[in-house]
Amino acid sequence: MTTSEQFNPAEWVIDHNDRTALSIRIKGDRLFCEQSPYQTVEVFDTCDRGKMLTIDRMVMCTEADEASYHEMLVHVPMLTDFKIKDVLVIGAGDGGTIRELVRYQNIETITMVEIDEVVVRAAKQFLPTISSAFDHPKLKLLIDDGIKFVKEAADHAYDLIIIDSSDPVGPSEGLFTKSFYQDVYRCLRPGGLITVQSESPSFNPKAFVELNQCLKQVFGNDQVHCYLVFIPMYPSGMWSLTYCSKQGAHPLKNFQRDRAITFAQEQNLTYYNADIHQAAFCLPTYIQKMLNEA
Amino acid sequence: MTTSEQFNPAEWVIDHNDRTALSIRIKGDRLFCEQSPYQTVEVFDTCDRGKMLTIDRMVMCTEADEASYHEMLVHVPMLTDFKIKDVLVIGAGDGGTIRELVRYQNIETITMVEIDEVVVRAAKQFLPTISSAFDHPKLKLLIDDGIKFVKEAADHAYDLIIIDSSDPVGPSEGLFTKSFYQDVYRCLRPGGLITVQSESPSFNPKAFVELNQCLKQVFGNDQVHCYLVFIPMYPSGMWSLTYCSKQGAHPLKNFQRDRAITFAQEQNLTYYNADIHQAAFCLPTYIQKMLNEA
């Protein structure tokens, strides 16, 4: 039996809005804290989820749960039948997305644009299993503004663009706008794909619905596919990612299931498997309605 | 930007273990509080999830999220091809499981055994949309100990038994034991089905794994099928249910998909649809390993 009175918030890191909060218990001293020009970056050691990176006290990742997010963001587009050679990643400062991308021999170049070098530095120092691929020869890491980068990037330069952003407050706010996605669209080759961190239908319903509308306006209604991932250490535990194509591969009709089965086994993935690839696109009816009736 | 210091726990109901906590903001005064012989039953009004029932400060349901749980507990077994006439429900004091069961014409009798009349009374008074079927003519509601009830029940009396329990502390502890499930098995007709609230792989990993092992011992390894539901207002948001059969219908191979599509539309269900029925059984790889390596 537990009561509010027994709960001492001093030992907990709390990620909350004004209606719901997720608290994760920490142990020992805070490992890292630095105020960058953009945000406060911190690393904690949790009681049972490993090390945890937060930005402005919003959970970015924990060692125990990060694979769910990073695997689903990367392997869903990579295991369609579209040939992907050149990848652009916006955000992704902890490095988990890069770690998943470098599993693929067919990728030739990865350009990553992260605005805040403090996030990269904190991840390199305290989250070595997540940031393990920052020295990979295929990676070109730029500390720069992703919005400005895509505005200035050449047309048709990338096969896959991954927008691995934090929530739409602070420096990530511009990553949730139509003008940004119009630039993203322009930079994609014909048939190119994107995957996007698209917020929680429960914890951030407004941002979730608005981003989906924005993506439909840019890519077309039938080219935008929302999918869900269980991430217990994000508030509500129900997080969405969104897959879009530039008139290209459908995430299920063009899914290479046999290749996915082999790949997931050989790579010893944690969350992703061929069944989950397909299941993640099956949305509860009320979430379908949120998106279709918006 | 938020910090722990700005978080005032007095306005929040907090469901937590010693490592993770989910807090739900409440408004106004507590609507109901009664200490029964078994537990403390309370009803609150939340800021955005509607009314909420808690037992010993563990969230049982909120009006906004309860359909996810109740629909998945009931419609998954009901939409296989096994003919179900007589149903036994253990627990389920809020009434949501009964509300879903009475949608089926083919069900002839529903026997519900809830140990604590206070839960039923609180639900009737404050959660009318959940407790709406307590007066249904097919329902026989007994306030009694479910463990004792199944011990004394006749062999082969039920086609479907639903164990809709709270967590394995207090009066529900005995609902997580092998001897209870041996009685449940005996009371099932040949081919009979059960569905069980089987805890969170993230928030209660030990109870989750142990209950799965227990069910496999009683029903046989190939008759036990775990499935997952997003329930944002339960800690971690990732909750499991388990489907078992007495050498009967497989939840996917014997799934009546066309009937499920029609049923979900006609009944205007909130979470359940035919795709979700199938998707819910696709488990992330690490959860498969938790169950297979236990």
UniProtKB/TrEMBL annotation, chains A, B:
Keyword Transferase: yes
KW Iron (keyword) present: no
Catalytic activity of the protein: S-adenosyl 3-(methylsulfanyl)propylamine + putrescine = S-methyl-5'-thioadenosine + spermidine + H(+)
E.C. number: 2.5.1.16
Binding sites annotated in the UniProt record for spermidine: 70, 94, 164-167
An individual GO BP term: spermidine biosynthetic process
Pathway annotation: Amine and polyamine biosynthesis; spermidine biosynthesis; spermidine from putrescine: step 1/1
Keywords: Polyamine biosynthesis, Spermidine biosynthesis, Transferase
Residues in coiled coil: none
Superkingdom field: Bacteria
Entry GO MF terms: spermidine synthase activity
Catalytic residues (positions): 164
Pfam families, A to Z: Spermine_synt_N, Spermine_synth
Amino acids binding S-methyl-5'-thioadenosine: 39, 114, 145-146, 171
PABS domain boundaries: 10-246
Protein's job: Catalyzes the irreversible transfer of a propylamine group from the amino donor S-adenosylmethioninamine (decarboxy-AdoMet) to putrescine (1,4-diaminobutane) to yield spermidine.
Subunit (UniProt): Homodimer or homotetramer.
Similarity comment text for this entry: Belongs to the spermidine/spermine synthase family.
Record's protein name: Polyamine aminopropyltransferase
Organism, scientific name: Stanieria cyanosphaera (strain ATCC 29371 / PCC 7437)
